[in-house]
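Table S2 (text version). Query chain:
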Amino acid sequence: MNVSPGRAGLLLLLTAQMLPMIDTSITNVALDSITHSLGTTSTQLELIVALYGVAFAVCLAVGSKLGDNNGRRRILQLGVFIFGLASLLCGISGSVNELLSARVLQGAGAALIVPQILATLHVTLKGPARARAISLYGGIGGIAFIIGQMGGGWLVSADIAGLGWRNAFFINVPICVLFLLLSRSYIPETSSEAPSRIDWPGTSILAVMLCCLLFPMTLGPELNWPWYMQAMLVMVLPLGYLMRSAALMQQKRGLQPLVAPHLLKLPSIRFGLLIAVLFFSCWSGFMFCLAVTLQSGMGMEPWQSGNSFIALGVSYFISACYAPKLIARYSMSTILLTGISLQIFGLIGLMVTLYHYDHTASALIIAPATVFIGYGQALIVNTFYRVGMQDIKPNDAGAASAILSTLQQSTLALGPAVLGGLFLHMQQQNHGNYPQAMIGVLGMEVLMMLVLVMATIAKRRTLSVTIAA
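Corresponding structure-token output:
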């Protein structure tokens, strides 16, 4: 019988979850400082964000299997150790290539952390306690976001010991050490009753697929789309077919593939895929492009840029806290449509704000629009996790959490590359005007959200039945 982690254990689990999230937002506010320090190009900035996400996504399923087989607490501790070491290496990087390599290692460490948390909560908690914990899991992003934006902006601007942006990575090290000292005492050890092998071929195919998407989207515009970049994009579809065929063959042999076909047959998982593609890519792309606009385009200091996101983070957290009450009262499709509508309203509001104020827009001026964006984002994220984990058996908890997290992180990684490429193109078309380029990106995000609205309406009855089941 699994033991509940208790309040102290839950706090430690959520702290570990915050590490990768904080790191993402900290990196955004440090981008301009990194550019001045290491002489990075816009493309390299995209890679600093995206490579972390790709490594994160590729290693998630491996991390999930390792936790199922060897103990989730043990692998969680290993992940925190690697994450802390990689953060140290990021901080002492003397070149862009060193920083990119450390970011890949940091993403791999994060991938060992995340699946253990959701699986541990799912296995050790029941009923209302599990519902509250998963809501906290979905809502903790708001807290991590505020801490990352404000703390990261302050650390970079304060330039403690003359280290500048490096402090944004060094801050992770003592947190990781503290977690490692306390986790054994407060976090229960859990594992799957039916250990399974790691699907290395499937993991390799997934890595190649994501690279075939990431590098063309990031480097293609700068290199004027050479034939080999186009060929990499074309290879994505046959690689996807190959991955599916290999998974079916392994399943017939009684083996567990990287992405279990029987889980992909669930309507909730399929709808989660749609949410990931349309929403999470928008989310990360929005954060990257707006951070570049505020710092490089409007000349804000890192702390000013970080403060510009406070309203978004606060509204996200408030929304996440109230989401369980709304979900208990209304259908999941209604909550999702509400979140998307608020997101669209906020995006359009920000477009109007940037069009009217252009380079003179301040943190206070953009705050009203970002409040709606943050509130809507939290509702969508809560929907994503609740739909995906509905009716998942304990033995499938690790595999299901890996699928959801892989979908989320894959699209989060590709967002800065895809929308960042659009942003750079729009900037060139508008003679270097950052706010106008940002308006173009926001317009694309509105269109993507409208597609999600139509898909939700089409699946409304099925989605409601799935959640009610």
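Notes on Table S2: The longest helix spans residues 6-38. The chain has a mean pLDDT of 84.
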